[in-house]
C-alpha cells in the first residue's frame, strides 16, 4: 500500500525557516551589499581636478538629499581608478591636513557641498590618463543604495 504525503503546517514552517536561513547565509550583509534601491540624493556639479599624470586627483560634487530620511555616503569606486576614498581637509593649529572619512550623513532636504566643506574623493592609481573634458564614472555607495555619476575632468 502506498502512503500519501500530506504536508503538515509545522513541516511547511520548518522548510520555510530552513530556506530563509540558507538564503540569509549566502547573501552579503546590508552594509556591504549593493542594492537596487536608488538613494534619494541628487548630485550636481560633479567634477575632478586634473593634475599631472601619477598625482592623486580630487573629485568634488554637491549632494542634496531630497528624501524624508537621512542618506549616508559610505564609499565610492570607479573603473578608471584603482582606489577611491573619501577625505576631508581640516585645519588644525594653522596646518591643513587631509583625514580619511568613513561616512558622510546627509540630513533630509539638506545639501553637502564638497568644496565648501572640505570633502573630496581621493582618486588614486589611475588606470588610464585623463584629460580636461573627459568624463569619469564614479559609483557612490550609500547605506541606502548606489548611484553612478559622471564626473567631468577640469583643469
Question: Secondary-structure map with pairings?
Answer:
Blueprint: H1 9-26, E1 41-49, E2 57-65, E3 71-77, E4 81-92, E5 95-100, E6 104-106, E7 111-113, H2 114-117, E8 119-126, E9 135-142, E10 145-154
Write a structural description:
The protein is mostly beta strands and 155 residues long. The protein has one domain: PCu(A)C copper chaperone (Immunoglobulin-like), CATH 2.60.40.1890. The chain contains two helices and ten strands; from the N terminus they run αβββββββαβββ. Strands 1, 2, 3, 4, 5, 6, 7, 8, 9 and 10 form a ten-stranded mixed sheet that branches. It is globular and about 40 Å long. The N terminus is likely disordered.
Task: Tell me how many strands there are.
Answer: 10
Corresponding CATH superfamily: PCu(A)C copper chaperone
Gap between N and C termini: 85 Å
Q: Would you list the SSEs in sequence order as H and E? A: HEEEEEEEHEEE
Keywords, separated by commas or semicolons:
155 residues, mainly beta, Immunoglobulin-like, ten-stranded mixed sheet, 2 helices, 10 strands, 14% helix, globular, disordered N terminus
Give a quick rundown of the structure:
The chain is mostly beta strands. The protein contains two helices and ten strands. The protein has helices spanning 9-26, 114-117; strands spanning 41-49, 57-65, 71-77, 81-92, 95-100, 104-106, 111-113, 119-126, 135-142, 145-154.
Amino acid at each position: 500500500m502506498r502512503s500519501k504525503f500530506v504536508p503538515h503546517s509545522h513541516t511547511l514552517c520548518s522548510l520555510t525557516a530552513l530556506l530563509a536561513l540558507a538564503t540569509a547565509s549566502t547573501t552579503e550583509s546590508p552594509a556591504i551589499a549593493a542594492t537596487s534601491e536608488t538613494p534619494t540624493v541628487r548630485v550636481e556639479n560633479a567634477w575632478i581636478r586634473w593634475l599631472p599624470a601619477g598625482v592623486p586627483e580630487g573629485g568634488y560634487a554637491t549632494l542634496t538629499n531630497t528624501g524624508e530620511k537621512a542618506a549616508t555616503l559610505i564609499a565610492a569606486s570607479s573603473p578608471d581608478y584603482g582606489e577611491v576614498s573619501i577625505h576631508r581637509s581640516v585645519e588644525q593649529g594653522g596646518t591643513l591636513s587631509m583625514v580619511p572619512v568613513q561616512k558622510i550623513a546627509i540630513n533630509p532636504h539638506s545639501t553637502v557641498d564638497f568644496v565648501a566643506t572640505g570633502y573630496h574623493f581621493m582618486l588614486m592609481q589611475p588606470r588610464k590618463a585623463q584629460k580636461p573634458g573627459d568624463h569619469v564614472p564614479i559609483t557612490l555607495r550609500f547605506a541606502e543604495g548606489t548611484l553612478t555619476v559622471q564626473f567631468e575632468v577640469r583643469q
